[in-house]
Amino acid sequence: MLAPNQPLTESEVAAIKRDFPILQQEVNGQPLAYLDSGATAERPRQVLDAERRFLEHDNAAVHRGAHTLAALSTDAYEDARATVAGFIGAASPSEVVWTANATDALNLVAYGIANASRGRGGAAAERFRIGPGDEVLVTEAEHHANLVPWQELAALTGATLRWVPVADDGTWTADDAVARITERTAVVAFAHVSNVTGMIAPVAAVVAAAHAHGALVVLDACQSAPHRPLDVQELGVDFAAFSGHKMLGPNGIGVLWGRAELLDALPPFRTGGSMITTVAMEGSEYMPAPERFEAGTQPVSQAVALAEAVRYLQGIGTERVRAHEEHLAQRMLDGLAAVPGIRVVGPPAGVPRSGLVSFDVDGVHAHDVSQYLDAQGIAVRSGHHCAQPLHRRLGLVATSRASTYVYTTEQDVDRFLTAVGEVRGYFGAAS
Question: What are phi and psi of 265, to 5 degrees?
Fold first, then answer.
């Protein structure tokens, strides 16, 4: 039996790939090599079937009706919450809040803090109050979803937004961050894994420094939850956010995890039905977490499907997922190093990174690179990847990004490397 941290074997990946109907097709007359999972992952038949099965047999409004389907739907909805809670090491299912996506989850925290700073939430919410003289710290490498909400929080409260600068390769260090955490720091928000560089953040050091100064830590786990073991309690962060569509699940659902005592004190920013205990014309009272943050009709079938995606990943083993992707990333890095005119951004050789690689082709725009690869049936991402400040710091308008997942084969990577090697010649950029 293979160790739990060994890369997947070629036969195992082939079997996994057969679970994904979309990957069985040809694109532009070539077998599809899907290397854009960092943007949106594909869904296995098991996940598609789970959502369809629910919709065909159990679909109803949750936490409302007293009829059989309502009870079945509510059970499935809350069972999904418990499944996801177990997957990330939450202390209780009540620490898992369903959101529309990770962007929504991060906005929930930022605007909840803004509401607390305006006096909403009473005495319990005072712990979140910030204002002039306080600071919110992010990094220069953040996805816009983990930057713009904090810009808005600073604008709404008078706090100051500060950031950890990145080096020429787009990475930052624990020392860089710790040096900027002071008694004025109220919130530290950063990505567990960069969606551009693949850098794995030094979470422990940042958490220790932040908590020593009484600051909250918010973790963007979009590129870690799908690809490597994630234990929120072990990490020690206060909030974490990730999306379903990046981890073999459906669109329209995300997850906010937060420590129970923090969620119960944080004021909601989206209000309406389902999140209240009492409503009078003069005012309303809100339920405890997680329901206080789940106003309106809920993404029930999406939660059911996300839970099935979690079980699918657990069946493979998250350590083996990580090992497989890091093996493929190294294969890409080795191959790109042999291609003239390629600049790879991210951690230097020998430093662990996730299973994605962003690069610039000298003399060829990233969009042209993507279109050339697409003609060969190879799907990669091109653009600034919702990280304009990072690209600006790197002196780049855009990069091309190849990202791997459980269904990515060595053959997919080798086809990608062959095509990248042809790009500069095709566009007349080779010297």
Answer: -100, -20
* Cβ atoms of 233 and 217 closer than 8 Å: no
CB 304 within 8 A of CB 47: no
* Residues forming beta bridges with residue 240, ordered by sequence position: 219, 257
What DSSP character marks residue 13?
Answer: H
What confidence score (pLDDT) does residue 379 get?
Answer: 98
Burial label for 425, CB within 10 Å (0-12, 13-18, 19+), is: exposed
370 within 8 A of 400, measured Cβ to Cβ: yes
Nearest to 38 by CA among 83, 88, 102, 105: 102
Q: What is the CATH number of the domain that holds 395?
A: 3.90.1150.10
* Listed residue (164, 218, 158) closest to 187, CA to CA: 218
Q: d(Cα 202, Cα 175) in Å, to the nearest integer? A: 10
CA distances from 304 to 68, 70, 73, 354, 393 (A): 18, 14, 9, 28, 41
Residues 304 and 323 in one domain: no
Residues 307 and 325 grouped into a single domain: no
Band of the pLDDT at 1, cuts 50, 70, 90?
very low
Share of the chain above pLDDT 90, in %: 96
Q: How many whole angstroms separate alpha carbon 263 and alpha carbon 283?
A: 21
Residues 67 and 213 in one domain: yes
* Phi, psi (deg, nearest 5) at residue 338: -90, 0
Could you give the 3-state DSSP secondary structure of residue 242? strand
Domain that residue 382 falls in: 10-43+318-426
Same domain, 261 and 360: no
Residue numbers annotated as active site:
386
What sign has the CA pseudo-torsion 420, 345, 151, 236?
positive
Residues 229, 167 share a domain: yes
Backbone angles phi, psi at 161, to 5 degrees: -90, 125
Could you report the per-residue pLDDT of 342-387, keeping only the tens digit for each? 999 999 888 999 999 999 999 999 999 999 999 999 999 999 999 9
The pLDDT tens digits for 59-77 are 999 998 889 999 999 999 9
Number of C-beta neighbours around residue 221 at 10 A = 27
Q: Are both 301 and 420 inside the same structural domain?
A: no
Rounded Cα distance, 268 and 105, in Å: 11
What does pTM read for this prediction? 0.97
Closest CA to 104 of 259, 277, 296: 296
Q: Which of 330, 356, 350 is nearest to 224 (CA)?
A: 356
